[in-house]
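The freezer alarm interrupted the setup, so I double-checked each line after restarting. Inputs confirmed:
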Amino acid sequence: MKYLILIHSNPDSRARWETLTDEQRMEFGRAHYALHDALLESGDLVASEGLPDPSAATYVSVRDGRIVATDGPFAEAKEYLAGFYLVDVASLDEAVAIAARVPDAGFGSVEVRPVFDRSVLEE
Amino acid sequence: MEDLLRELAPQVLAVLARRHDGFDLCEDAVQEALVAAAGQWPVDGTPANPTGWLITVASRRWIEFRRADVARRRREDAVTAARAPEGEAVPGTDDSLTLLFLCCHPALKPLSQVALTLRAVGGLTTSEIARALLVPDATVAQRISRAKQTIKASGAHFEMPEPEDRAERVAAVHRVLYLIFNEGYTASSGAALQRIDLSHEAIRLTRELLERLPADGESAGLLALMLLTDARRAARTTPDGAVVPLPEQDRSRWDRARIAEGTALIERTLATAPIGAYQVQAAIAAVHDEATSDAATDWPQILGLYDVLTVLAPSPIVALNRVVAVAMVRGAAAGLHALDGVTTDPTLAAHPRAAIVRAHLLEMAGDHEAACEQFRLAARITRNLAERRYLESRAIAAQ
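Predicted 3D structure, all chains:
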């Protein structure tokens, strides 16, 4: 079963980040790389990426068959998606154990969400 | 030719694993031999003894790997090489079974057992497995390589489990095969076109298991359960992937040959083997499959079978399914009463299936407003997209 572990950036987590020394920030980044490598090695990882804040975003819509892409400007979002780990494991317990190893979990909380699966109970 | 290679792969691996140390190296060697065959046979023609050809090539590869791996053990290699004759007899059936036991070794995580079984026993490539499981190639490659390391580290050998462990190890094989079956059965029809059919793969492997363990009632029960479930496949989704629940399925689209085979198998097994949970589930599936319409279903018999299953293998889902049977035999009020008794289990209270059952029973009882509310609740908490669509439509219909 696949689970998406979502890392949200919000005013609280950003305030905590500001208190970190450069060395602590480096350590934080290294911990992410280490987790990525460990999950790749264990065969649990499907994909994992970090995301910049929405000021870097492009918004795309299709109207009357025409593509309209805009960069904003948009009001600064209080909370946004800052990264994710998509894992494929046997149970929610395993996904939660992985989420607990995400460095951001020590900051605020990370979100574990099941991916829609295809299993249907018939009878 | 692909089918031939997939059939021969586990036999070749079994011969190698029996003869040489190191399951991991053997598996790598067989993969290389298969790649060589896929390149050479279409050009030069399939050899007269394809199994012998593969064993010879794989053995040479194994020796090369071993040399590269541990150069100082060259002397041992020479001994091993001298032992490898050209042209092999087809290995005994026990070897394939031993291989299956090794791939489903209890030291491995379930998803690793699945990946290793599909490759080593099913003969699928890493890419085929990755596409079938909807994960990247690297994930599968890593699971297989980790699984092989784990087997090595656990000290497990290519040999039959001890008699006292036998039942438990067979049960592990059943779980892995059923997991593979369900992975394929629950795939949406659209995506399935691109995928190796895992359900059919699981049925093929379970057939082989039963050939090797003809007296094992649960192996027969598992195969019958798969056949009787797979028989309904064409009727269980609409072309756009929406779910069609059992009562509403077009029974003319059920696969009669599968039903006949599964029913004959389970009848024969129930008469001769000690009872087991897979057999009872197969029997329940057979009763559904034999009914010409939903109304014609023999619910008293299904209720009796669920009573047996509740004793053999109690689970929240079994308890819920039994509630449905109670309602069909004794009426909606009796069903709702039984449901209240069951949903005291906290894992079940939050399960979408509990809300679905309650919604159906309320609808049966004529309380449409409460039914609509339960359908909406179920739609919110289900993890399945197709099921969510179905439940939302039911909520609207119930209003």
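Quick read of the result. Chain A has a mean pLDDT of 88.
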